[in-house]
Each structure stands twice: as C-alpha cells, then as structure tokens.
Write a structure and sequence with these properties.
2 copies of one chain form a homodimer. Chain A is α/β, with parallel strands linked by helices and about 325 residues long. Helices cover about 35% and strands about 15% of the residues of chain A. The first copy, chain A, starts with a strand and ends with a helix.
Chain lengths: ~325, ~325
C-alpha cells in the first residue's frame, strides 16, 4: 500500500487523527506528506502536498488518517477522494464504514484502476486454531484495560530489538496497527470460531531466534472484549508477556461500574492463561503511560513500581523500550 | 418454528443425527414424526410419516436433524426438501451451509410461501457488552473440554428446576440448542467484538427469582475456542457455575497434544473469571458423562468425586439433574 499521502480530512483535533499520527511516528519513511481539507484544525508537521504533488514524489495510496464519531466516511470527503482516484491513487481506510460500500468511490476506482482497501474487513478466511507449538519466539502486550498503550509498546519494542540487531516483527491485530505494518488481522472483526486461528496465521513458525511482537487487544478484565484477549493469548502462544497500564484511569474504558485490576492481578491471570499454551511463558516487564505525571513523578513512580513487581518498568513514550528489549534478549 | 417433522436424510449413524436426537429427547411434544430417505440407516423410534401425513397432524417445519461431514446441504436431499416446501412447510437448518444459498430451495420457498431458517447465521446485530448488573439469576455450564455434556446438563437442569416449580429458561448458544429452545445465538458465528453483547442479549434482566440456564461452549482450556468461553462467562455474569467433564477423554477434542485440565483447575480459573462480573458467583456442582462406566463404577466414581470436590457430582443422563437444581434452589 505504501508510500502514503496522509488524508486528514476535516479533523477537529489530534484525537481524531490517531491513524495518521501512528503512521507518522512509526513509519515516517512511508509518509510523503499530509493533505487537509479547508476545515481541518490540525497539523502533523508533515509537508503539505496536493495529491498531484505527492504523486510526483512517489505516493501511491491515500491513507485515511482521520476517524470521526461512528467511523463513517464523511460526505464532505467524497469529492476529494474521487479526485485522488482520478489522479491514480489507491485508498486505504481502517474506518468501520467501508470504502467498497461507497458507489462513487467504487465507480471512480474502477474507472481509474485504483484499489480500495478496507483494513477493518477481514481478508480471506482463517482456520480453527490448533495450538500446536511453532518455532520462533513471541511476545504479547496485555493490559489492565483497553487503550493503555499496548500498540505503542509493541512498536517501541520492535524498534529497540532492531537496534540490538535482533530479528523482530510487529504483528498487527487492529486497524491502526495494520496500517503501520501493512498487514495483519482486524481481530475484533473476525468470527468467533476463527479468532485463535487468525492469530496463529499472523504469527507463523519462524527462525528460532526471531521475535514476533504481537499487538494486544482489549483486556482479560474488560467484560466487553475479554474473549478477544484470551483468543489472542492462546493464539499467539507467547514466550513473554508485557503488562501495560495507565495509572490515572478511574475505571475500565466505557464501563464506569468496573474498577481496573491491579498489575499483580493482571500478571497472575494472564500468565496462567498463557502457560496453557506455553508452559515456559514469563512476564518480562511493565509498560506504563505516565503522560499525566511530571518527569520526576514518572521516574519515581516507575522506580517504585519496578521494585514492587520485581520487573523492568518503563514508559516507552518517555524512555523508549530498550530495557524491555534487553529483557527479551536475556530470556 | 415448531412443531417439527424431523428430516433424517441419509444419516449413516446416530452421531450424524445429533440435532434430531436433541429435539426428540428435550422437546418430544414438538416432534410430530421422523422422515427418512431410502439410504437412511438409523431410526429414532418416532412415527415414520410422509411430509403430507405429518402436515395433517400439525407439523409446520422440516427440521434438518442430520449433519454430514463439513455441514453441507447434500445434493441428495434437494428433491425431498423441495417436495416439502411444495407441501407448505418451512425448513430450519443448523448446518454450516445455508439454505438461503440453495437456489432451488429459495425459489421453491418463494413459490409456496415457506420460510427458510438458517439457525447458524446470526440474526440481526448485537451491541457491545456492557457488563452491567442485571436482575434475575444465571447459571452457566463450563467444561474441561468441548463436547463434554454442557448442553445436556443445562437442559436436564431446566427440567429439574421446573419440577421444583422454579422459573427457569434454557438459553441456547449453539445450533442444536437453538433448535431446542426455538431461539438463541450461534455464539461461534458472532463477530468477536459482539460476543459478550450477544450473550447479554439472550440473558436479559428478569424476575429476581428466575434462573437463566445458559448453554456453555468450548472451554477456557481449549486453545481453539477459549475466547468464546470467556465471552460467555463475562456476558452471562453467572451466579452459579456447573463443571462438566468426561473422565475417559485422553486429550482435548481435536488436539492430541493437549491434556485435559483437572476439575480443580477448571473450578479455580472459571470462578476467577466469573467473579470479575459477579463477585458472588459460586461453583455449585459437577456434571460427568459416565457413559463408558458400568452403573456401579459410575456410582463409585461420582461419590468419590463429590467428596473430593465437596460438591454434588451427578451424571445428568443416568441420574437427572435434581441434585444440581436443589443446589441452585438452596443458594
């Protein structure tokens, strides 16, 4: 799909541009520039390019980098997107709404030979998981809640492993991750019977020293999505788990009536489940989103937490994931 | 959908007729008779009726009571099924293959005003689960493995509760169960994000004294399907769990490389997961399939097991589920 021109549409704030920010931060070499409509209120600091100008620099695909409430394809984008197809682009989207359900886009793509990629729609069919031991090593990020930095942690860890000259591949299980990796499965959109098999498919047998760094989803403690998380644990048969946490959170995401579990509870339950498919699995570190703390507070918190858990405790955003990568290397 | 004429097709053995046997055993009042093709090798002991004769006695729907390898709709059935539609029947099927994908059946149904019900296809859309506490009580059967008698146990328990004049509803989560209950969700066919929400939908708020008896699926210890099981536990927020087991089983179903967990392991993990959504949840009994034992062996085994687990231990097939129903009553 890459290289991309990042379409920011009429994004009102940075929160709406999660996909574009992920691509910019983790695959900058694939981002030729940004393209905004008049109403757009944000700036990712990339070069502002028209579709024509970006095409001349090698961009092949418009990445829809913005999501609005409900994940719909906005009417106000259609003129622009049609123009891009006319200019020879493909379009890729991780929105709930499908490009392939938009008659104008389908017709324009057919006319101009462009592809429409809906990354949230599962591609092909998957087998039933079989739990058979595969060669290669796997690390999975699990969280006390949804949206506590599991994807960010996995990507930072892949980067640090590469810096240590250790072969490693980020394995995407959500829309933003699939954009970044260029491949993966949208696990939350897979039919229940095939969840574990889909995870096995994207973490295949590999060189003995190779690490798959698997993007986590949901939480074993989140009643809405826990089944997805357990399928991910059993399908990825992890050798190593990383616990992800956001200390400021008052309750489980979207569920005011549920408190977060402690990191100890997460460690015990996730390890117990993972050891069903890999008896040697270990928890190797904690990754914390300390964005709400001052640098001093964060340092003190992480130091105390590391002692309490007897594990490396880092904020991958502030500190990078090198200590986690070293823990994997030393396993 | 009921009353039914049970279509046994060309079933080679009783194993192929699981759906028909379930209907005969649990909803005999809805089974007007059986209908077999010439090659059929089994007999369910129901009256042998032609579609015309069964129609005259009130049958409304042909229940496809047989499954062949792969769950396909056999070519050799089509003439017969078309004849039934001509005679004014609806057809219901829990097969993987869909009736609605068979042009001959679709055309015949349209011509004669019959309905085609594909029970394995999820009906409508489901919300994301929210884990909010609902009134009424719920009991869920969980297993050391797949296919260890969870559905049978739930149906036997519903029957025993009714004998005790306790309001109770069997809640179906698989194809055979949906046939028997006339409603339910085919949980293994639901999109991952909506599994828990689908279970919440079929176990809604109810009278405080009413019991939902929820059909279990898979096993927390079965790497292929564990995610479905956890969604079921969190979606049904059980007040009571029943542990289901088959002592003769040598390995997890379909996975020769996985041993079964002990009943103690199942108790501990299932309870821990269930208490996330219902802190008061208790394990109230054990249901064992002792078909491979003599009556004396079974009695001794269950007595020893009951002492070991400090729980009522029964074989619902041999003994019924009254002791489990009493345990629910006494909770």
């Amino acid at each position: 799909m890459a290289p991309y021109l990042l379409f920011l549409g009429d994004a009102p704030d940075l929160l709406a541009a999660k996909v574009a920010i992920g691509l910019r931060d983790w695959r900058p070499e694939q981002c030729i520039g940004q393209w905004r409509l008049d109403q757009c209120r944000i700036d990712l600091g990339l070069e502002e390019l028209s579709p024509q100008a970006a095409r001349a620099r090698g961009a092949k695909t418009i990445a829809i980098g913005v999501a609005n409430r409900g994940g719909i394809i906005s009417e106000s984008w259609l003129d622009a997107l049609e123009t891009a197809l006319e200019a020879g682009y493909n379009i890729a989207s991780g929105l709930h709404d499908r490009l392939s359900d938009q008659p104008r886009l389908v017709a324009a793509a057919a006319r101009h030979g462009g592809q429409l990629w809906d990354l949230r729609a599962p591609q092909g069919s998957f087998p039933i998981g079989n739990g058979a031991k595969r060669t290669g090593k796997r690390c999975l990020a699990v969280g006390t809640d949804c949206s506590v930095g599991k994807m960010y942690t996995a990507l930072a860890l892949e980067k640090s492993l590469h810096e240590l000259d250790i072969a490693a591949s980020f394995r995407a299980t959500g829309q933003t991750g699939i954009f970044i990796a260029g491949t993966g499965v949208p696990l939350d959109a897979i039919v229940a019977d095939f969840m574990a098999g889909a995870v096995e498919t994207i973490t295949p047998a590999n060189d003995a020293a190779h690490w798959d760094i698997v993007e986590g989803q949901g939480s074993l403690f989140h009643p809405s999505f826990s089944g997805v998380t357990l399928a991910l644990i059993h399908g990825s048969q992890p050798d190593a788990l990383i616990l992800c946490h956001e200390p400021q959170r008052q309750h489980m995401r979207g569920l005011p009536h549920y408190a977060l579990p402690s990191l100890e509870e997460l460690r015990d339950l996730a390890l117990r489940c993972a050891q069903r498919v890999n008896p040697d699995c270990q928890v190797i570190g904690v990754a914390v989103n300390t964005a709400a703390m001052t640098p001093d507070e964060a340092r003190d918190y992480l130091q105390e937490l590391g002692q309490r858990m007897q594990l490396p405790a880092v904020d991958p955003y502030r500190d990078g994931a090198m200590r986690l990568a070293q823990a994997l290397r030393d396993l």
